[in-house]
Specification:
This protein is α+β, with helices and mostly antiparallel strands. The chain folds into two domains: 42 residues; 165 residues, no CATH class. Helices cover 27% and strands 35% of the residues. The protein is built from three helices and nine strands, in the order αααβββββββββ. Strands 1, 2, 3, 4, 5 and 6 form a six-stranded antiparallel sheet that branches. The protein has a three-stranded antiparallel sheet with strand order 7-8-9. A hairpin with a 2-residue loop joins strand 8 and strand 9. The radius of gyration is 30 Å and the shape is elongated. The chain starts with a helix and ends in an 11-residue tail after the last strand. The mean pLDDT is 77.
Length: 224
């Protein structure tokens, strides 16, 4: 009789086993849910990071080069200091200007500038992803290019990209006519990539926007 009581005291009843199993199941499910939530948040932050880095790179380049905007007093028949041209309803565009502070041109001689061109190209219609943003630089003198341009791709796989130039009143800056008497006062950049997946069955768009004033108005070249 005493032996049987001792055996029961060292064992577990069925109710105790069921309670322990239930608690273990709850803890495992809670840990799994917390891990899944953490993984989803990590993917949500990390998935768009490469695209945001491209956007910040484009912003840094344009701000640096527009800071040294060269605005010569040229005649109307010559190439305007700033040229902005849209094609296919704005799905493609080209922005070109003179700068004394190019980002990728080393050893620039005094009295010289560089013609920088940003060009957005789409492979098909405006809704087709895979568009690219290209940057070209060419050494210039006397408002003329005197060297072959060098091109590099700044961003690719784009679903959309816009560059808007504004005057001091916040109105759209025109590339022709009286507006060419003064450089643009504000630049707005919008870049968009296709939706990225950050969780099972969930996507989110990747967008980058920036707005900044042109820091130098009518910059002049140093004397040779």
């Amino acid at each position: 009789m005493d032996s049987r009581q001792h055996t029961r005291a060292n064992g577990f009843t069925l109710v105790e086993l069921l309670v322990a199993l239930s608690l273990s199941t709850i803890l495992i499910l809670a840990a799994h849910s917390a891990f899944g939530l953490g993984l989803m948040l990590w993917r949500r932050v990390e998935a768009p990071r490469p695209f945001e880095e491209q956007g910040h790179r484009v912003l840094a380049l344009m701000r640096t080069e527009l800071a040294g905007l060269y605005w010569p007093d040229v005649e109307q028949e010559k190439v305007p200091p700033v040229v902005y041209h849209e094609q296919r309803g704005g799905s493609q565009w080209k922005l070109s200007f003179f700068t004394t502070t190019p980002s990728h041109y080393r050893g620039l001689p005094p009295g010289r500038c560089v013609r920088v061109t940003y060009e957005y190209r789409t492979p098909g219609n405006a809704e087709t992803s895979g568009a690219v943003l290209i940057r070209r630089t060419a050494l210039a003198a006397g408002e003329k290019e005197i060297a072959e341009p060098v091109a590099d791709v700044l961003a690719e796989g784009l679903a959309g990209c816009k560059v808007m130039l504004q005057n001091a009143k916040g109105e759209p800056w025109q590339a022709e006519g009286k507006e060419q008497q003064a450089p643009p006062a504000m630049v707005v950049v919008e870049m968009r990539w296709p939706d990225v997946s950050y969780a099972a069955g969930r996507t989110r768009p990747v967008e980058f926007q920036a707005r900044w004033p042109v820091p130098v108005q009518a910059a002049l070249l140093p004397d040779e």
